[in-house]
Automatic annotation (TrEMBL):
This is Glyco_hydro_43. The lineage of its organism: Bacteria, Pseudomonadati, Pseudomonadota, Alphaproteobacteria, Caulobacterales. It comes from uncultured Phenylobacterium sp. GO terms for molecular function: hydrolase activity, hydrolyzing O-glycosyl compounds. GO terms for biological process: carbohydrate metabolic process. Keywords: Glycosidase, Hydrolase. The keyword Magnesium does not apply. Pfam families: Glyco_hydro_43. InterPro entries: Glyco_hydro_43, Glyco_hydro_beta-prop_sf, Glycosyl_Hydrlase_43. It comes from the Bacteria. Belongs to the glycosyl hydrolase 43 family.
Amino acid sequence: MDNKSLQPIGEQTILVNGGVDISQKPVWIEAPHIYKINDYYYLMCAEGGTAYNHSEVIFRSKEVRGPYEPWSKNPILTQRQLDPSRPHPVTTAGHADMVQLDNGAWWAVFLACRPYEGNYFNIGRETFLAPVKWQDGWPVINPDFDEVQYAYPTQWAM
């Protein structure tokens, strides 16, 4: 980006054209993050809008400009498959980012809602943390649970 004109410079490249599977007509992806982890560039994006179909999806490539392949088990985070009338639901999970701690553990920070009834929220979108595990070279958020948890076991002193 040119610092004075604030205009992009260099060759424009489309990394992903619309979502994981265009034939399914997904709500366009947004909020991309690129991570260089070992031999791959990972492109992580929100997909599905910010309501009940919200999710986080992942792509990877050996080159930063692609081509990027989607993981066959996308999305790596969503709550859309769960009954929204379940007790104490966490819904609309997405817009995630990942961090690796000094001890090597991976965690995701993301937005989600806690409706008190139906689609009504007192607070709106809140920030959540969930563990990340790597499966066959792909990150998976909240891998040991169907539902996002209010708290997770950790090795940290509280």
